[in-house]
Amino acid sequence: MKKELLAPAGDIEAGYAALYYGADAVYLGLKQFSARATANNFSEDELDEFVGFAHYLGRKVFVTINTVLQESEMQQLIKNLDICKRCKVDAVILQDLGVAKIVKEYYPEIEMHASTQMAVHNKQGALALKNLGFSRVVLARELSLPEMKEIASIKDLELEAFVHGALCYSYSGICQFSSFENGRSANRGKCLYPCRSQFCKSGKNEHSFSMKDMALEEDIINLPVYSLKIEGRKKNALYVAAVTDYYRNILDGNGNLREKAQNIKQIFSRPWCKFHLKGKNKDVTDKKFVGHRGLLIGKVEDFTDKKIILTTEFRIAKHDGIQIDVEGLEKPYGFSLQKFRVKGKNVWEANAGDKVEINLPYKLEGLKKGNSVYLSSSSYVKGAYDYQKPRPKEFIIRTKIDVEVSVTKNKLMAKSCGEFAEVEGIFTPAKDINKVNEAIKNAFEKTGDTVFDLRNIVINNEGNLFAPISMLNDLRRKLYEQIVIEDEMVKIKDVEPRILKKKHGWIVKTDDVKKVALLDFEKLDEIILLINPETEISDVLRLPKNKVRIALPTVCRNPKDFEKIISKLLDAGYKKWEIGNYWGLSVLPIKKIDLSFDNMIYMFNLQALQMAKDIHISRATLAVEDTLENMETLAFGSPVDIALVVYQDVPLFTSAVCIRDNACKDCNKKPLWIYMEKEGNKYEALSKDCQLMMFNEKAFCMAKEAKNIKADFYRADFVYKNYAPEKVRDILHKLMNFEDVANCVKGNILRKNGSF
To answer: Cα torsion for 534, 537, 538, 539, to the nearest 10°?
Structure first.
């Protein structure tokens, strides 16, 4: 299988570097709705130029619109999609179902790629998105090679996998840590990476969730995917050039890979890992240090307060960056190399194998023999990746225009695209009218830095009058300055809201029927039971059948584990179901049951809710990280029933990375609660079945605010954490009176739209 090398571009310079060093395609973001909102990203003019150049080279360009959008942002979305259409981008990478609906219906010429933010981690999820109109799925980073191969058996669906760059501790798209911790949502492209902070666990401080970088290197040859994706839209052109060059050489079978890998590590690199490609791997976090480490060049052999001595394994030079791992520091100790000696002499550079005395800027507490020393910045490498780029405006996408020019005795006039320009003068008969007409045509063909190309020109010159070149050029400039080419903006059909219920209902969600044993089910409209492969039918039967809805988990690495229990419950007549990830659309007979979306399938706008209705979803649950203002808009205008979560222990993240102290071979995989602290905040992490879920000690509660939202149902969740039946009863009593529980968190509900 021929593979596509897909490189990132946080700005146009990085994009040119990617193309020069062999990227088959480049993905980038516009100024809004990108999951890397803090990257420079592309303006419309830059996108225009870049796509034109990429297409000239026979390469492709994908635009990321891979965040969730609130209802108030949908008009700007249309403007962005119009830009993508005008600039002829090859595909858009999406997370939001509302965006997908609009692209599918109004921009069919643009391919849809499902972002890794959609958390596709099994074959059933990929198949569901194919059925929704996606031509490509970007797989979750957590997958192993056999899992990828299983998904690759789907016909007529392209797969894309990350092969190099930063890793998230959580499955992408189901992390709400930054949103609840900092008010900056990863699903909105604003993650502040609280997972990379230091946590206290069992009295010990460490970076429990700070991931190493992914580097699959030569293993990319065996990946059963079409597109190989390099992460890095927040990295500079030098980094993009080096990483693209490295993987291009691997794909092309070229040598010298060791030196190219070393170059990358000098530019930017945390320690490398293969993640779970070859099976479960616990050695994927860097618990002692955060940030860029560099290329390991040796160990401290001796030291004083003023210097260290080591034998360098690589060339180093004055002004290079040096970092030293020192226990007790969160980040390696770094400094610019200013003064160093080889064989007792001051030198400007040292070669591999030289014993070097390096002066320290100041005394370094905690320094020991054996500390690792890294080259974190190399002046040699900085100059090793030149690249060529086109002249400005050379490849802009031009619009064909028609011009009409009229010559009279005292005026030159020109019309085009509804605009008009004129130049006054005295114009006398020409000696050769053919030369005059040729001059007029040549003048208006000089479109220069404009976005126009002359298609046709009509010349009205009944008197066969002469027009000077200088005046024709002046006329052309005046006309072209007035012309603004704007495509007619797509008009999206409004969503028709449902008929609001006169009376709201209450729902309780649980993962254990014992927790709800003391509830008065007559006061509840529904009980949602989250099942697992070991769920007993007898447990389900303890609940009133007419009020039970069966819920599937968000993450499921092997849906076949659920086949038996799903079949039993369907045969037993359970027709109400809920899913928290797209894989559920493939394992349930969605046209024969009453199916609802849990809040992890994000509904942030009315178009997303309409898409849900189009695929036979009867009810959607609003996202808990949304704002109150947007929730009110959606609850009022939704075409499907709305459930509003008023109480929940929010899963801050869900991860396939284990932080248990035991080795995998010694693990019983049974539930284990791990308690942690960070900056005064307390957290509870549940490790179970090779999965870790993180919770704040405090529950999310918005009962007080929910009273004024016209939801069809209000929902209280008692899932994951251990709740005594008495506590469940008492909490629910307060919630049903729209009273908050004590010591709760509010998330983003009190923030303004667009601010999180």
So the answer is: 60
CB 66 within 8 A of CB 35: yes
Q: In what order do the strands lie in the sheet with 345-346?
A: 302-303, 307-311, 355-359, 340-342, 345-346
Residue 34 binned pLDDT confidence (cut-offs 50, 70, 90):
confident
Residue 347: how many CB atoms within 10 A of its CB?
A: 16
95 burial via Cβ count (<10 Å: 0-12, 13-18, 19+): buried
Model pLDDT, residue 656: 97
Q: SS3 string of 343-360? A: CCEECCEECCCCEEEEEC
Residue 712 and residue 634 in contact, taking contact as beta carbons nearer than 8 Å: no
- Under 8 Å between Cβ of 738 and 173: no
- What is d(CA 639, CA 621) in angstroms, rounded to the nearest whole number? 13
Q: For residue 65, what are the β-bridge partners?
A: 94
Residue 531: CA count within 13 A, CB half-sphere: 29
Report pLDDT for 573: 96
- For residue 272, the cross-strand partners are 213
Question: Which pLDDT score is estimated for 669?
Answer: 81
**What type of residue is 491?**
K
Cβ neighbours, 10 Å, residue 391: 6
Tokens at 647, concatenated: 């109480």
What pairs with residue 457 in β-bridges? Answer: 403
Rounded alpha-carbon distances, angstroms, from residue 703 to 584, 597, 634, 700: 29, 21, 18, 10
Instruction: Using CB atoms within 10 Å of the CB of residue 491, give its burial: 0 to 12 exposed, 13 to 18 middle, 19+ buried.
Output: exposed
Q: In one letter, which amino acid is 424? A: E
Residue 555 near residue 174, CB atoms below 8 Å? yes
- Give backbone dihedrals phi and psi of 334, rounded to 5 degrees, phi first: -125, 150
Taking the mean position of all CA atoms in its chain, how far away is CA 478? Answer: 44
Q: Give me the percent of the chain exceeding a pLDDT of 90.
A: 91
